[in-house]
Design a protein that fits this description.
This protein is an alpha+beta fold. It has a domain of 72 residues. It has three helices and five strands. A five-stranded antiparallel β-sheet has the order 1-2-3-5-4, with helices on one face. The longest helix is centred in the middle third of the chain and has 17 residues. It starts with 9 loop residues before the first helix and ends in a 12-residue tail after the last strand. The structure holds guanosine-5'-monophosphate. Guanosine-5'-monophosphate binds next to β2.
């Protein structure tokens, strides 16, 4: 089964400039902006500009150039915001929800970069 991309999703509208975002960094193939409902002092979303539904879609079908650009953008954002996990930073969590079981709300690939506080264990028990 093919991945089906919804051109009307909110991040597609951000990419088309139809609704505003608060960009942190823009590159040839990627855009990073602050989450509208931050869950931590640092909460940035990194998205590819291409029409990819989720990480597995992107990993399987994006070009090498898009994948390199996206991955480097995640690294650059971590460093820019001081949440890299080196000797100078306190680390962060990257989350890429996908599909129904991943409880993905916006069907355009986005990696959440969360940091700036202790985040606790990765998963809460399912309710
Ligand atoms: P998901 O559950 O799909 O992984 O996360 C979607 C994220 O997108 C949520 O954290 C939500 O706050 C964020 N979000 C939804 N709509 C907007 C928007 O219009 N602008 C921004 N900056 N973030 C949004």
């Amino acid at each position: 089964m093919a991945y089906v991309y919804d051109e009307q999703n909110i991040f597609a509208k951000i990419l088309r400039g139809e609704i505003p975002s608060n960009p942190v960094l823009e590159t040839e193939h990627s855009l990073a902006f602050n989450d509208i409902n931050p869950q931590a002092p640092v909460h940035v979303l990194v998205i590819p500009k291409g029409p990819y539904v989720c990480y597995d879609h992107f990993a399987l079908e994006a070009s090498d150039a898009e994948i390199v650009d996206f991955t480097r953008t995640v690294g650059r954002i971590c460093k820019m915001l001081g949440v890299q996990a080196d000797a100078a930073g306190d680390g962060c969590r990257l989350i890429a929800n996908a599909g129904a079981h991943g409880v993905q709300e916006v069907p355009h690939l986005h990696v959440h970069i969360l940091g700036g506080r202790m985040l606790g264990r990765m998963l809460a028990p399912a309710k």
